[in-house]
Design a protein that fits this description.
alpha/beta, two-stranded antiparallel ribbon, 8 strands
Length: 265
């Protein structure tokens, strides 16, 4: 179910539904591009129209962050669960191992990439990679080399561990040339898979405090990013809630609770 969350398209899917869509794309070899929406990406989209267009043109915009999930619920959208990118990656690697699909890993440093692939092979012994390339390529010549390698690999799925908006720009320019049916950006999931970054404990994830755990691990790099994006997101959400309350005051005669088509702005 696609809805609009503060002007951003979002697909209200469960993990099982998302995995089924990805499996269907790989079986039919019909392209399906998935993007994971979190608070940082949402905030960046509001000041970057090119990024916003790249996200809107994706086939599936999944609810990745707890902030997006809670915000959607607060605004009346029937969002039931988040589909975290790192968890979706794990689920799809299991599908690949079981059904013989071959993934391609793109992104991270060469060392982290190799560690992530080794960890994936240890977890899923029957997994076979179509190919891989680190994320440190530059210019059109570098893009052409990577695009050609992905296309010749005949991969069934492509997981891209590059930062925003680099990966979105890469896919907007080249997704039709890759020949890969399922494409997904995974952010820092390769670092987690490789063991370079620890995932927050489940209890902290459920509390929506993964960002705080990341700051604890990398304070010099992460504290300003989260302080800025979380504050901006909270401000945008509060404004939307106030507008909604003024439009649909509780107890007003004939007031109708807002549905998915009423959210936006």
């Amino acid at each position: 179910m696609r809805a609009s969350f503060l002007g951003c398209p979002v697909d209200l899917l469960t993990m099982a539904e998302t995995v089924a869509l990805a499996r269907g794309a790989m079986r039919s070899r019909q392209r399906l591009q998935h993007v994971a929406l979190n608070v940082a990406k949402f905030v960046n989209m509001r000041s970057d129209p090119v990024l916003a267009a790249d996200v809107a043109n994706s086939d599936v915009v999944g609810v990745d962050g707890m902030g997006i999930l809670w915000g959607a619920r607060a605004l009346g959208l029937p969002a039931t669960s988040r589909v975290a990118g790192v968890d979706l990656l794990a689920e799809l690697l299991a599908v690949c191992a079981q059904e013989g699909f071959k993934p391609y890993f793109l992104g991270a440093t060469p060392a982290v990439l190799q560690q992530a692939m080794q960890a994936a092979r240890e977890r899923y012994p029957s997994l076979v990679f179509a190919g891989w390339h680190d994320g440190y390529f530059k210019g059109e010549q570098g893009n052409d080399v990577v695009v050609r390698d992905i296309r010749l690999s005949a991969a069934d799925c492509l997981f891209i561990g590059m930062p925003t908006p680099q990966k979105e720009r890469f896919l907007a320019a080249h997704r039709d040339d890759l020949g890969v049916p399922f494409i997904m950006g995974v952010g820092g999931a390769f670092d987690v898979l490789a063991g370079a970054v620890r995932r927050a404990p489940v209890r902290i994830q459920k509390l929506g405090l993964e960002w705080l755990y990341r700051i604890y691990q990398e304070p010099g790099r992460m504290w300003w990013r989260y302080a800025t994006t979380n504050t901006l997101f909270a401000g945008v959400l509060v404004q939307a809630l106030i507008r909604q309350a003024l439009r649909y005051p509780l107890g007003a005669p004939g007031a109708v609770p807002p549905g998915p088509s009423r959210i936006g702005g």
